[in-house]
Design a protein that fits this description.
The strands form four sheets. A seven-stranded mixed sheet has the order 1-2-9-6-5-3-4, sandwiched between helices. A two-stranded antiparallel sheet has the order 7-8. It has 362 residues and is an alpha/beta fold. Bound molecules: nicotinamide-adenine-dinucleotide and glycine (GLY). Glycine binds next to loops.
């Protein structure tokens, strides 16, 4: 993929482009089209800053650039991190005409987006995602927020970015464990509604793990296309956007129970998608081949297919009751009728869920 691909997230006056390509951190023209005002605050973390902050700051040398470097990782996706961003904005007299720019993975994107959504009741922000996970999922769609000790992403806001600049060259420095975790979200799109993409992924996991540029380019583009369409159809998750949470109710419970960052988000949702497939089969919604094929692709990717030993079914159920898809005490789960046939289900049998979890967590 030599050239830059541009996709559009079609949201009326909040529409924005997603740029996907190589070496985009240094492509100043992409930023100038979408930066509001002269003042920019770059928010990044202490793994990403030493590699990419200087490059980006020199790309933006015509702007008044400040930066704040947060500690890396899920454990720091907190209101304290948001507060550190506010401190920087206020101390440097940032007004409403500024832009806040997230340079990093999904944690930096979510925290920065939430700071931008709430600072002076909302300022412009740009996503420059540097992990596979953030390039294929979290940078697109405007979900921003932080964790609470009792639940993942419990505090947040919808706030769409002005643009997304996905520089695939940044994936060269990504640790392999993070690459694998990002693939979980890519595989999710195949499992939700694209069986052909799922088959392509089964055939190309090795190339993706070897950072083959053509294969990765296709995976990122295809994922962003799917996400852009779903977000355009249901920006605020009144319906079908919830399909993007396949495996997440179980996965978020795992992340919270183990302590944020013990399992990576992608690892937790991989096990979560396997649990969703297992429960779907136990409930009679799908066949055993669906469960086997779901587990096989995650095994091939080097991701967990079983929940962690140190967690119980009770704890999982307790944490699932805080899920954002609970309405009037009724949880909606994303289940599967087959590969590429995910659906929303709020009338599943609670006893059967308990039985599935009892044998999975034994
Ligand atoms: P992350 O932001 O923690 O990044 C993973 C690790 O990689 C960090 O240690 C980071 O410092 C490092 N890193 C980032 N880019 C790098 C690079 N190019 N080279 C070397 N190291 C690099 O995690 P993530 O997997 O990107 O994102 C996970 C988060 O995204 C979770 O909090 C999850 O809840 C959230 N998420 C949000 C949405 C959404 O719609 N907003 C969707 C999916 C996931
Ligand atoms: N990652 C879930 C969503 O954006 O809706």
């Amino acid at each position: 993929m030599a050239s830059t691909t541009t996709l559009n997230v079609d949201l009326g006056e909040r529409s924005y482009p997603i740029f996907i390509g190589q070496n985009l951190i240094t492509d100043g023209s992409l930023y100038t089209q979408h930066l509001k005002g002269r003042k920019v605050l770059i928010v990044t973390d202490d793994n990403v800053a030493p590699i990419y902050l200087e490059q980006l700051t020199s790309t933006l040398s015509n702007y008044q650039c400040h930066s704040v470097t947060l500690p890396a990782g899920e454990a720091y996706k907190t209101l304290d991190a948001v507060s550190t961003i506010y401190d920087e904005l206020i101390q440097n007299n940032f007004d409403r005409s500024c832009t806040v720019l997230a340079l990093g993975g999904g944690v930096i994107g979510d925290v920065t987006g939430f700071a931008a959504a709430s600072y002076q009741r909302g300022v412009s922000f740009i996503q420059v995602p540097t992990t596979l996970l953030s390039q294929v999922d979290s940078s697109v769609g405007g979900k921003t927020g932080v964790n609470h000790p009792l639940g993942k992403n419990m505090i947040g806001a919808f706030h769409q970015p002005a643009c997304v600049i996905a520089d695939m060259k940044t994936l060269d420095s990504l640790p392999e464990r993070e690459l694998r975790a990002g693939l979980a979200e890519v595989i999710k799109y195949g499992l939700i509604d694209d069986p052909e993409f799922f088959i392509w992924l089964e055939e190309n996991i090795a190339s993706l793990l070897a950072l083959d540029k053509t294969a990765l380019g296709k995976a990122v583009e295809k994922s962003c296309q799917r996400k852009a369409l779903i977000v355009a159809a249901d920006e605020l998750e009144h319906g079908q956007r919830a399909l993007l949470n396949l495996g997440h109710t179980f996965g978020h419970a795992i992340e919270t129970a183990l302590g944020y960052g013990t399992w990576l988000h992608g690892e937790a949702i991989a096990a979560g998608m396997c649990l969703a497939a297992r429960f779907s089969a136990d409930h009679g919604y799908c066949d055993e081949d669906t469960v086997a094929n779901t587990k096989a692709i995650f095994t091939q990717t080097g991701l967990p297919v079983e929940p962690p030993n140190e967690m119980s079914a009770e704890r999982c159920l307790e944490l699932m009751s805080h899920d954002k898809k609970v309405r009037d005490n009724n949880l909606t789960l994303v289940l599967m009728r087959g590969i590429g046939q995910a659906f929303l289900c709020n009338d599943f049998d609670q006893q059967k869920l308990r039985k599935t979890l009892d044998s999975a967590f034994n």
